[in-house]
Amino acid sequence: MATKVVYHRGAERPALEITWLDDDGNLIDLSDATFTFKIGTRGSPAIVTKTSNIEGADTAPNVTITWTSGELDIDHGVYTWQLTATSSGLDRICEGTFQVLDVIA
After folding, report:
1. Which residues are bridge partners to 77 per DSSP?
2. Tell me: the pLDDT tens digits for 24-79?
3. CA proximity to 35, closest of 80, 75, 85, 82
4. Looking at residue 27, what DSSP letter applies?
5. What's residue 105's pLDDT?
6. Kindly report the CA angle at 96 between 66 and 50, in degrees rounded to 5?
C-alpha cells in the first residue's frame, strides 16, 4: 500500500491507486465498499473530505481515487490521509502521509 503520497498543488492527475492488503498480506475485496477519503491533521477538521470518484475492486489496485478540478488546491505542506472503507456496516481504516508541493510561479 502506498503510504506516502506526493502531489503538486492543484494537480488532478494521476489518480491515486492503493493496493490494500489484510494483516496476512492478502488483497482485500473492496468491490462492494463505500469510501471516505480525508486529508488533514490529526485532531483537527479535515481540509479535504472526498466521498465520490472512489472505486473499489477485487483486483490490485483495489482502490482508485480520481481527482476533480480544485480538490487538491490546498496549501503546500505535509498532512495525514485517511481512507475509510465501509462494507456490510463495518469500517476499515488505513492512512499515510500526504505531501502537497507548491508549483513554480
Report:
1. 100
2. 999 999 999 999 999 999 999 999 999 999 999 999 999 999 999 999 999 999 99
3. 85
4. B
5. 87
6. 35
10: its cell numbers: 492543484
- pLDDT of 92 higher than 90: yes
Nearest to 96 by CA among 54, 53, 50, 38: 38
**Which contacts (CB < 8 Å, 24+ apart) does range 87-92 have?**
87/30, 87/32, 87/33, 87/34, 92/28
Decide the pairing of beta strands 54-56 and 63-65: antiparallel
pLDDT value, residue 1: 62
**Block residue for cell numbers 492503493:** 18
